[in-house]
Amino acid sequence: PPGMNVPVASAMDAGGGLLLTEDVRGIDPTECDPGALTGDDVRDYARGYAELQQAVGPVASDAVFDCGLARMPEMYADVIHDLPVLLADAEGPPSAQEAAELRELAPVVAAACRDADEGGVPAHLVHGDLDGNSVITREGPVAFDWATAYVSHPFLDVFEFPYFHRVVTGLPVPDAAADHYLAAWATHGSVTDLRRMLAHLRRLQRMPWLLWSAHAIRHLRVATSHLPHLPYSPIASSIRDWQAWLVKCLRSVCVDMARAN
To answer: For residue range 210-250, what is the model confidence (pLDDT) as tens digits?
Structure first.
């Protein structure tokens, strides 16, 4: 597809959940030295990723984890309701006061989803973990390791962009990558409209990982689920790992909501 590249698949074992791709050689924005990248690299990365999302088209929700904005409030409420089960025997679970605060956030989450969805940008495939899983090559940017991809508002991946200002000398603003990315969605509104959507989504930036963590824990506890038995799976980590991540996301959501307000 146009835009950002993805590794070329060399072989696949669908039954075993394995995919072999060609080696990706390039510069990791999270690891390179200051000055290794240019403003043009930032532009190509951000616009290229938007173009890749737009080129993929509709994705079957039964094939990729679906946490679209319309479903997100109910999914969040279900997670909060199920916390005693999801975090059974977990280390450092939320206190009773924190759990109460999380329950009180339910209508705030619903309002944030409605506000962001009013922009009319349809759900797209979202990588979910670009920072550390994307590189800059001579042929352009490449995104790999889509194991935690999901379907939702495409702008959520802006919060997963590498922090380019750390490695690109002379960038005009810290969020230059976000500006380039939003420019690729100009058919859905003015710059002001698109930035407003992004501001609403900032309150929800940890929500996909929160929901993913709960999804993983539930699957790991279902003996009939095939996912934990794949040789390589996004939920192949131990339950304790995912519980720790869920706890971290729960506390981050409280912080994100407070900052936005």
So the answer is: 999 999 888 877 655 555 555 555 554 578 888 999 999 99
In degrees and rounded to multiples of 5, residue 130 shows phi and psi of -65, -35
Q: Are 127 and 133 in contact (CB under 8 A)?
A: yes
**pLDDT for position 33:** 85
Classify strands 124-126 and 134-137 as parallel, antiparallel or unpaired: unpaired
Angstrom distance (rounded) from CA 209 to CA 206: 6
Is the pTM value of this prediction over 0.90? no
Contact 130, 157 (CB under 8 A): yes
For the stretch 17-56, pLDDT in tens is: 677 777 778 888 888 888 888 888 899 999 999 998 998 8
Six-digit token string for 193: 């409209």
Q: Three-state SS across 237-257?
A: CCHHHHHHHHHHHHHHHHHHH
Beta strand spans in 87-178 (E): 124-126, 134-137, 140-143, 150-152
Residues 156 and 132 sit within 8 Å (Cβ to Cβ): no
Q: Are 48 and 56 in contact (CB under 8 A)?
A: no
